[in-house]
Amino acid sequence: MVVFERPRSLSPLPFHYCPGCTHGTVHRLVAEAIDALEIERRTVGIAPVGCAVLAYDYFECDMVEAPHGRAPAVATGVKRTRPDCIVFTYQGDGDLAAIGTAEIVHAGARGENITIIFINNAVYGMTGGQMAPTTLPGQITTTSPYGRNVKTQGYPIRICELLSTLDGVAYAERVAVSNPKNVLRAKAAIEKAFRYQTEGRGLSIVEVLSSCPTNWGMTPVEALRWVEEAMIPCYPLDVFKDTGAKGGMNK
Amino acid sequence: MVVFERPRSLSPLPFHYCPGCTHGTVHRLVAEAIDALEIERRTVGIAPVGCAVLAYDYFECDMVEAPHGRAPAVATGVKRTRPDCIVFTYQGDGDLAAIGTAEIVHAGARGENITIIFINNAVYGMTGGQMAPTTLPGQITTTSPYGRNVKTQGYPIRICELLSTLDGVAYAERVAVSNPKNVLRAKAAIEKAFRYQTEGRGLSIVEVLSSCPTNWGMTPVEALRWVEEAMIPCYPLDVFKDTGAKGGMNK
Amino acid sequence: MNRVTISADYCKGCGLCAAACPRKIIVLDSKAINNKGYHPASVIAPGSCTGCALCALVCPDAAICVERDA
Amino acid sequence: MNRVTISADYCKGCGLCAAACPRKIIVLDSKAINNKGYHPASVIAPGSCTGCALCALVCPDAAICVERDA
Amino acid sequence: MSQKVLMKGNEALAEAALRCGCLYFFGYPITPQSEVSEYMAKRLPQAGGLCLQAESEVAAINMVLGAAAAGVRAMTSSSSPGISLMSEGISYLVGSDLPCLICNIQRGGPGLGGIQPTQQDYLQATKAPGHGDMHLYVVAPASVQEMAGLVARAFDVADTYRTPALLLADGALGQMMEPVDFDAALSVRRDLPEKSWATTGHGGKRKKNIVNSLYLSPEALERSVLSRQERYREIERTEVLCEETDTADAEIILVAYGISARICRSALEAARAMGIRAGLLRPITLWPYPRAALLRAAGHAKHFLVVELNIGQMVDDVRVATQCHRPVSFFGRCGGMLPTPEDVLAEIVKIHESIREEGA
Amino acid sequence: MSQKVLMKGNEALAEAALRCGCLYFFGYPITPQSEVSEYMAKRLPQAGGLCLQAESEVAAINMVLGAAAAGVRAMTSSSSPGISLMSEGISYLVGSDLPCLICNIQRGGPGLGGIQPTQQDYLQATKAPGHGDMHLYVVAPASVQEMAGLVARAFDVADTYRTPALLLADGALGQMMEPVDFDAALSVRRDLPEKSWATTGHGGKRKKNIVNSLYLSPEALERSVLSRQERYREIERTEVLCEETDTADAEIILVAYGISARICRSALEAARAMGIRAGLLRPITLWPYPRAALLRAAGHAKHFLVVELNIGQMVDDVRVATQCHRPVSFFGRCGGMLPTPEDVLAEIVKIHESIREEGA
Amino acid sequence: MTSRIILAGFGGQGILFAGKQLAKTAMHKGRHVSWLPSYGPEMRGGAANCSVIISDKEIGSPIISQPDILVALSLPSFSKFEPAVSEGGLLFANSSLIPEKSKRGDIKAHYIPATELAAKNGLAGGANVIMLGYLLYVTRLFDYDELIGNILSSIPASKSALIEGNKKALLLGYEYRG
Amino acid sequence: MTSRIILAGFGGQGILFAGKQLAKTAMHKGRHVSWLPSYGPEMRGGAANCSVIISDKEIGSPIISQPDILVALSLPSFSKFEPAVSEGGLLFANSSLIPEKSKRGDIKAHYIPATELAAKNGLAGGANVIMLGYLLYVTRLFDYDELIGNILSSIPASKSALIEGNKKALLLGYEYRG
Ligand SMILES: Cc1ncc(C[n+]2csc(CCOP(=O)(O)OP(=O)(O)O)c2C)c(N)n1
Ligand SMILES: Cc1ncc(C[n+]2csc(CCOP(=O)(O)OP(=O)(O)O)c2C)c(N)n1
Ligand code: SF4
Ligand code: SF4
Ligand code: SF4
Ligand code: SF4
Ligand code: SF4
Ligand code: SF4
Ligand SMILES: [Mg+2]
Ligand SMILES: [Mg+2]
Q: Residue H13 and residue F135: Cα distance in Å, rounded?
């Protein structure tokens, strides 16, 4: 009995990601959710600009490549004109939390009935390791060569906490893909985020703490340890909003 | 004994605002704060695009006119190169909470040591009364002619609540200028927001619930009543963050 | 006596001062019209003015100057 | 017997599966090198595999297929 | 009673779009075009469509990108500074070969400038509405009636060639009312290709569609740019529009589009009344540019006078089109000032006299 | 040992800016220019300056606006899509008469395109970097050494005429290393005007300063546009730069800037070796354009060949500059493809032969 | 024949509405028309004006530099446009708010205290239509019924209360004898 | 004289560093040089190469279509660039990772098992410098001391541990006799 194989909604193409990069893990979880809900035929995904820019090649559903940071606006354009489609964006922390701040906040405020998969790897991966809005205090990147100095370079942004202040956000959870248990939690969260869309609840976002071994200068195994030891303390794993939970939990 | 007169930092030019528009009231309070702290000589104000676009004519300090929504970025450019200057922005709800969302959020995240005066009048005044992100549910505007439908046009954004999630924000308070008592509270808040800057605390924002009799289609007196009866219930007056308060209050 | 001076150059006849005055001694002069087409406010019973300055506090055009005895 | 198949086409030799395997039966084959220059992972003691699929769960390249006995 | 209705240009363009099946409008308010969204906000919900006010022009153009990718007719509208903000998105629409309509109801600039009518964005519209080798199909109406008609044409050309189209007008055309006959304006309908490339969910019935502008291989990117250029050549062959008034025997040819062409038409009448052989060549498509018509005119005309509400942005296009055969001079106002027909007439008279002198 | 250092173009431009007293950099990462911010992030804090990574290109250009308003030398850098996003801000900088430096290290487009070198933003840079009647002082270096030298010149021109300047290069120039001699590059220093208009707090010592681009009265806006045009005329008179190689006796003149001029130079050597009288005219300032030099060259040359990494964006400028006296043809690649000197040589030979035939 | 009409006054006096009625009525008579408003933030409390052209031929420029007819409802608009009226042109001035008289000999000036008439007759905001009535009487641009028909058809059902007022105002102006 | 050199291999093999050493050394000898890398995301795990031109004259195009010298560290880079080497040109191939031999008769091919040599001598990542040593021995482009001096001066103080390794690697290559 096959207990684990590549999900159907994932294309057979090998990923272009670096060895050990958890973008791939999250791709698989998204494809698994699409499979589980049997929505592949009506799903439209929006790829970001970032390491996941080629995501359009990896999912077996229709895909649109959005300008850097604008995936939520592009998703709005698709969803509002094709309300029967299931629309998701897949965005990095530069894409969503820097240049795309206005778009994600307003998609949230409007309660766009879409699903956001947000990859927080504390760095700009694709462009070669610059500081992201989510870079940790003291973290060295190519544009914070002396370590992020919060006094001059600002504090990390906690996107789930920020978006939870918006009435249109139905569900916001932060997960990590740093070990098997966390991967299973992430899987459940991502599936829920898609299910909520099928139920018309509004915007769902799953923030995934992810690794970038290449730009962090670590082995893949070290990188996952760093996610747990350095990132989770700054970005606690939690459900920040869940309007579908008993009593419409709204932290 | 003169107990009340035009503040020194206000220019002698009559405002171009409509009769009863509380933009004028807030201008006066800003000028009073500048007078009280005796900072006029080193203050640089950033005018928005909105009804207050001509604010550069009304304050007796140096002024820069910013593109729509970008005042916090312009303020950053001034403050970071002239750290001894006191820099404030004066922005409407379209300017700050719509097109300028990314700029205010990131100025907050960076903890820019500037002061933000945010005029929430639930409408785009200058362009003739279109819906703003802060327009109330059901409110009729020229682009929500059937009343703002939250299901399709989104929910009001509560800026103070949202910005309070950011570590770089030192002070966030919402006030109203709807009656003499509230005006006095607003005055105190605005002065505090400037004082915090002189103390180097980071970003301070005062959100002022304000009236737009022209576009609301009300008399000035009715408009202030509407601020109290309709706006305050949606936008509660409160101190949302105050790192300078006893115990570093941080709601 | 307390004195309230309303500058007709600044006043736009919005009526907020009139609404705020606890003594109800401010009215809009419907006969006067300034060069912007507004009816400016004026104090009809200066003698009863308490100098509380509430009118000035709410005036959006900073048109009001309030002086108090000693 | 449980069976774990690692596709050399997908595998990038990141070692996450090896780290995750509770039986420690996955290693990177430092002699083999695929056409992208990676040393793919392989199972050295298939007999002790529990079919727990933890390896597959953490594999970022969806390179692992796990089959369990009935 | 005629079937004409008196309408603002901004409203007529919105109504025309709706009647052309454009049920999706994404915009952000800006003077002097806010009536477009306001009209759409009233009418589209009634028509089963959607008018969504975006958080910015950047978001608006990207919503249009999403809607166009999903295969529907969609549009946005703005004015000069807002169009600048859209330029990244516009370039992406081009790179993704997506049809849509963008309207620029120009005002004064640069920067915040002013809100009075200008034609200051001619170069931006025709040469570089975004980064990269690209064009838009650019139409420039000169009346409210034409505003409606060109909306229809722009959508058809956009759909036929998978290109965004730009309607370039100005505050005066947007704000003025004139009679419109929509039946006449929208009478021509084309056979349009199926949007088989649209991302609507594949339904298990076809391979997945990808809407994309990224080509990491320069060979592939070059191929895509060159194949788009071929479509541009086809548009140049078949979709050029221009109107000639009294050019056949004209010594002096005025070249003007949009509202300035209207002013020129008044000046022209006066010039003819004075016995000056003047004519007007009015480009209706600004890209593709009516090069052939201009070259033809250069065969007999002695002088070209370009009239625009800017500092002379179209002059070089006239020079190139006429292969520098004839002198090209310029008259215009900027910053929101409008020349009067008398101003233009004075210019014509001056040129007329100098031609006489040279001839003498 | 020479005082030369081997540096990437991106780094050399950053180092040159710093040495010119530009202590404030605001940027957002994008390939192929991220080294500019990375270099600044290392060096500026040491130099008592500031490198701030903005949340977007839109924010970056507006931070530059604030810094420029405050009277300091400030700059930003990006690549094609990021420059599109800056176009509103650029127009505001122009409208507010603020000096600053913007660098565009071009990549492929339209849209996301690719990251390989192109010259696809020539038209955007020279015709419409934003809305409104406006120009930037546009310099196009062709070597790493020139990258440094033109940064210095651009800042000086910007400060002298209160205009933003744009350095237009491409991924190849940004990424390649060559020796740089900074002392030579930065040797010329001008007397620059005081920035008495800067908003630094009036200190009670002067009237307040206002930096602004809004003029609600069209009369005032027109005046401001026209007075800026006068400064442009002055820049055209005094700040044009171009380099001619072997043009004096040339029958065929290549016109190319930046990296394509380098490729042309190699082709030129080969052509001369074959006895073909070819020359190269290299615009160094793209705006103002070296019209006079081209017109002079059109006096004796038989043919102009424009070579660019795009689909021919500069061709019309050469036509207009040469007053259509001579045929102008084009050779180029796009999408990130680079022609070889051999490709260009083949084109020269073809033209050479057709001239011979015509002559026969 | 071509008529170039400028209507001008304070924002809020119904200038644009009045101009639109003229244009619409002419359009329904099959004539070429254009209507161009001043626009923008200066409308707020400040000035408002619009240019209406009615012609037998296609209309070139919709901008009017020299009106054949000026309808001025406020003093600033009188001062601004009166000097521009073309020779032989007509001026209609709201004498309630315009204390001055035209000093030009080459135009024909008509004065009507429209604001006062409106106030006296309980027609707040009706000065614009009163002016139209007077203009109609003097110029005979249209038939009375044509114009009133068009005015009434511009009133949305939700504001049918305004019907009587407009009828009364137009008649007041039409029957006014300066 | 002009030398056009392409160095190519996997990302991570130190291709760009090696090319830079050649350029820098030539620059310090007063020659004209240019160094152009491939760049972008394909560098990640994929391929990397750079073009180095060393010349007595000013350098025109920094792009090399036909290298005089190819230094190939990986099989894909060998397959890609070997056919482009100019007639009479030189090839240096890392035979540890390139099992094939050049079939061209018009170029001179040199093979060195650089990766194995590095591994055997505890010089992880030193294959690039070993290749440089071998290239130097064959071409005599520079004096040995010039090159090693420049390599060592590129090593930041913080990584001084690398000095010995680089010395050893260059010598290994220089003394290798295929
Ligand atoms: C407008 C624009 N600005 C900048 C870029 C360059 N760019 C590409 S990806 C990226 C950031 C990627 O970081 P992130 O979103 O965190 O994704 P990751 O690569 O880390 O997954 C940037 C800045 C771009 N393509 N477009
Ligand atoms: C890029 C850009 N988009 C749109 C506009 C038009 N615009 C001017 S002010 C404004 C909104 C004003 O609303 P708000 O900020 O709430 O200020 P208020 O007038 O209500 O005080 C808009 C959309 C502009 N000037 N620039
Ligand atoms: S650079 Fe980082 S985020 Fe990008 S693919 Fe490599 S490891 Fe993943
Ligand atoms: S439109 Fe509204 S916000 Fe603007 S000045 Fe008038 S009342 Fe104030
Ligand atoms: S509040 Fe001020 S502006 Fe309003 S009526 Fe009174 S004095 Fe005049
Ligand atoms: S000071 Fe007080 S009492 Fe006097 S007029 Fe003003 S509000 Fe009335
Ligand atoms: S299934 Fe479990 S036991 Fe078997 S190889 Fe994978 S992790 Fe190890
Ligand atoms: S986790 Fe996957 S990619 Fe990584 S070594 Fe194991 S099988 Fe290979
Ligand atoms: Mg990231
Ligand atoms: Mg507002």
A: 46
